[in-house]
Design a protein that fits this description.
Blueprint (H helix, E strand, L loop, with lengths): L2 H26 L12 H26 L7 H5 L2 H20 L7
């Protein structure tokens, strides 16, 4: 398998991992609410910053492994950036919806 294909697939997996990290962090800091009238802006900003930090850390980790295997070192940064953020967003929304969900009706 070519190095750029490996980087692409790693970024897909890291998008899923980043989504779990974002939801876990929001769950741990109690910013997840199942009340549809309450939207905490911190939930959105925390998720975006954690996704960006995860992407940057992955860049430096992948750079150490694939630096001499690709033609242009710049490709390590740009390969899979779109699929990473799309995968992160889809899984983040899916996991967040499953955890927060609609509020339970009163008994």
């Amino acid at each position: 398998m070519k190095p750029l294909v490996k980087i692409y697939l790693i970024r897909i997996m890291l998008g899923i991992v980043a989504a779990f990290i974002c939801v876990g962090y929001n769950f741990a800091t109690n910013t997840i609410s199942n009340n549809p009238d309450v939207f905490k802006f911190n939930t959105l900003t925390n998720g975006i910053f954690l996704a960006l930090i995860t992407y940057l850390v992955s860049y430096y980790a992948l750079k150490r492994v694939f630096l001499y295997q690709v033609e242009k070192p710049q490709k390590i940064f740009t390969m899979g950036i779109g699929i990473y953020f799309i995968t992160w967003l889809v899984f983040w929304i899916l996991i967040y919806t499953l955890i927060a969900g609609p509020p339970l009706p009163p008994p």
